[in-house]
Amino acid sequence: MITPDLEGAAIFLRVDPHIWVSDGDPGYAGSSYQSSVFGQWQADGVDIPGAVGLRWEMTPAYEGAAISLDYRPIIRIVQGAGYAGSRLRSNLSGQWFADGVAISGAIGRELIISAALEGAAISQDADITIMQSNTIQMWVPERQLTAPQKDNGGLWLGEDRTTVERNGADYVTAWRDKFGVRDYTQPTAANQPRAGTFRGMPAVIWDKSPEYQYLQPPAAFAPMWWLVLAEFATGVEIISGTSTGSAIYTQILGNGQAALARVSFQQPDAVQSGTSAIRLNAAEAEVSSGIFPMPMGSMSFGVSASASWCIGRGFDANNNRQWVGPILGAIALGVVPDLATRQLIEAYMHWRHGLEERLPANHPYRNAPPRVQ
């Protein structure tokens, strides 16, 4: 009966789920618990990891515990690693939220993570309950890194390109910084790398010809550490006169100053100029030689000079030195990250680009991407 004080209110009926033991001895390992509704099984009020659904089989670890079911909406990642392009699904239909704010038009059982939603705390309120779901929030550098880390750095990803079409091909005129600090640009047509894809993902591609392709920052800056996700040439060939012009060097960072202010490589001797060692695919140890050939993966290294660090080319008098191959993304920091932060960045860059299998077996994020919650 609606009384005057209830008039106009949203009226709900909460029906607690009915659970029972359908097989085995209640409370002992091997017994099958079932529920009248889909939900998260709990032991002594704490979620049982992975126990989501209409049925759960007790294991010895939970003998003697009070078993219950939380029937709030449960959201899961069913496609992708939780970053842009990933698909989230709920057991119930309802309104989706990002950082506690309703996402306009996002009502139903599924949500596709757009670039704007990447790193947000995603949750859902179901139509048939007044309970909020669990929250999924992926770790992303632009949200979780500190201002000092970002001030002398940047984050450039393949999809954040501005391009121009010429003769049936797209060329990169600018590469936007997701930190909002500095965009890389190239107004000169002859020096623009190509916009393309690698393994189905957007990439900036440095072809063998024409030579002297590079992207430059608006001014000099002083990053202390870089990680670049790239593949040299075809991923199998070595550096030679036929792969990067007339010299035997290839260069992934450089500037218009002295020869020492660059990061270049010469197979098989050593990393040349600007850095003494490099870390490949999040390995525990750095190496100073034997860098190439290199299939798509991450290279991280420290630098110390303040310079106009150009990506992909030396931007110096040596016009025959440049990168060759695709770059999916790059990140620079104003400070050298500690171990925990470095591993988060490595995991983000690898998982976001479908390269998690290249992380070492003992990496803390080898089997799952990093999440805030």
Overview in brief:
With 373 residues, this protein is mainly beta.
Describe the protein.
- The chain has 373 residues and is mainly beta.
- Strands 9, 13, 14, 15, 19, 20 and 22 form a seven-stranded antiparallel β-sheet that branches. Strands 1, 2, 3 and 4 form a four-stranded antiparallel β-sheet that branches. Strands 5, 6, 7 and 8 form a four-stranded antiparallel β-sheet that branches.
- A hairpin with a 7-residue loop joins strand 5 and strand 6.
- The two termini are 42 Å apart.
- About 1% of the residues have low confidence.
Order of helices and strands: EEEEEEEEHHEEEEEEEEEEEEEEH
Q: Sheet bearing the most strands, described?
A: 7 strands, antiparallel
Query: pLDDT under 50 segments (min length 5)?
Result: 242-246
Q: Gap between N and C termini, in Å?
A: 42 Å
Oligomer: single chain
Tell me the structural class. Answer: mainly beta
Calculate Rg over CA atoms: 26 Å
**Considering DSSP H and I runs of 4 or more, what fraction of the residues is helical?**
under 10%
Features:
elongated, mainly beta, 4-stranded antiparallel β-sheet, 7-stranded antiparallel β-sheet, 6% helix, 3 helices, 22 strands, 373 residues
Detail the topology: elements first, then pairings:
Layout: E1 19-23, E2 32-43, E3 46-57, E4 67-70, E5 75-79, E6 87-98, E7 101-112, E8 122-126, H1 141-144, H2 147-151, E9 154-157, E10 161-166, E11 169-175, E12 184-185, E13 194-198, E14 201-206, E15 225-230, E16 250-254, E17 263-266, E18 270-272, E19 279-280, E20 297-302, E21 310-311, E22 325-333, H3 339-352
Antiparallel strand pairs: 1-2, 2-3, 2-4, 5-6, 6-7, 6-8, 9-22, 10-11, 11-12, 13-14, 14-22, 15-20, 15-22, 16-17, 16-21, 17-18, 19-20
